[in-house]
């Protein structure tokens, strides 16, 4: 779908992107993750042709590819209705007449605002505005949708609705680029992801592979007894919430040992859980925990 080669971009001599290269396959949701100032928005604006003065190449598999860009800031005219906003963006994308009217109503329904089309945007909640912001970028049925932090400041219901919209777009064959700070979002909806830091890609690939490569599983145990003497040969042990967290590359063996131990001591385990490695661990492993502001 899209190949990015050696992109460099500076603002007044400060490097925002350094030698960024990526390949984004067709039909997937591709996550861009990174701390504040990592360069996600700059990269997205370059792909969306909002920024033109940069070094390097962005190559699309199809030169006539239609792109829908959802900016980080809500870009709506709040004094007019939701329908009018969609109508305006549809016109910008070259739609007119009955087709434009039909598409605006269709998009209102896709973004869950079919009953609010005639209301002014200034009466909308944050979630409704975010959904409308996305809707405006969908008017011309783009094949590539680029979204920059589309869930900032919204409630879990709107967030879930946006995820379902993304799933539906993907099911329709669209490709989505999704920038976010929220690891759990990337983990939930993205097939592949690139981690950015200080204007560079520090790692990229399928989300599952990244988890396997960087995140170590752990076993959490809480019970009446201590731990087997030799447990630390299987991993590192830390105290957590009146129990123990054992970080280990062999979680099944550790669980087996803990169960045997509790039987031997004849005491009840309160909790024994395998804690799934998270993308947040991968994020901190790759970018560190130091503040960026
Ligand atoms: N218009 C601009 N003028 C000057 N510097 C800019 C401009 N836009 C971005 N930068 C700088 O470029 C770097 C990358 O910023 P960018 O907004 O692309 O990062 P980001 O990963 O999207 O951050 P955030 O998550 O905070 O939105 C930062 O150091 C930022 O201060």
Automatic annotation (TrEMBL):
Query: Which keywords annotate this record?
Result: ATP-binding, Nucleotide-binding
Residue ranges annotated for the ABC transporter domain, each copy included? 2-223
InterPro entries on file:
AAA+_ATPase, ABC_transporter-like_ATP-bd, ABC_transporter-like_CS, P-loop_NTPase
The answer, when asked if Glycosyltransferase is one of the entry's keywords, is no
Q: Record's SMART domains? A: AAA (SM00382)
**Superkingdom, natural source:** Bacteria
A GO MF term? ATP binding
Q: What is this protein called?
A: ABC transporter ATP-binding protein
């Amino acid at each position: 779908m899209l190949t990015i080669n050696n992109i460099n971009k500076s603002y007044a001599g400060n490097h925002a992107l350094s030698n960024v290269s990526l390949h984004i396959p067709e039909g997937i949701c591709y996550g861009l993750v990174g701390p504040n100032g990592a360069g996600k928005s700059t990269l997205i604006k370059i792909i969306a042709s909002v920024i033109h003065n940069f070094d390097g190449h962005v190559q699309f598999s199809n030169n006539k590819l239609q792109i829908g860009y959802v900016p980080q800031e809500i870009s709506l005219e709040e004094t007019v209705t939701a329908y009018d906003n969609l109508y305006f963006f549809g016109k910008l994308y070259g739609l007119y007449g009955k087709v434009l009217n039909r598409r605006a109503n269709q998009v209102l329904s896709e973004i869950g605002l079919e009953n609010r089309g005639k209301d002014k945007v200034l009466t909308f909640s944050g979630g409704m505005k975010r959904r409308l912001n996305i809707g405006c970028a969908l008017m011309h049925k783009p094949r590539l949708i680029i979204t920059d932090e589309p869930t900032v400041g919204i409630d879990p219901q709107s967030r879930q609705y946006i995820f379902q919209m993304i799933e539906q777009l993907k099911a329709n064959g669209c490709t989505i680029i999704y920038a976010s700070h929220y690891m759990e979002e990337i983990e939930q909806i993205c097939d592949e992801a690139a981690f950015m830091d200080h204007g560079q890609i520090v790692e990229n690939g399928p989300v599952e592979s990244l988890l396997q490569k960087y995140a170590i599983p752990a076993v959490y145990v809480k019970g009446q007894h201590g731990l087997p003497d030799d447990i630390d040969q299987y991993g590192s042990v830390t105290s957590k919430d009146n129990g123990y967290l054992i970080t280990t590359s062999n979680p099944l063996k550790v669980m087996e040992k803990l169960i045997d131990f509790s039987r031997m001591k004849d005491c009840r385990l309160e909790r024994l859980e395998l804690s799934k490695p998270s993308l947040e661990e991968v994020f901190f492993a790759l970018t560190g925990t130091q503040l960026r502001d």
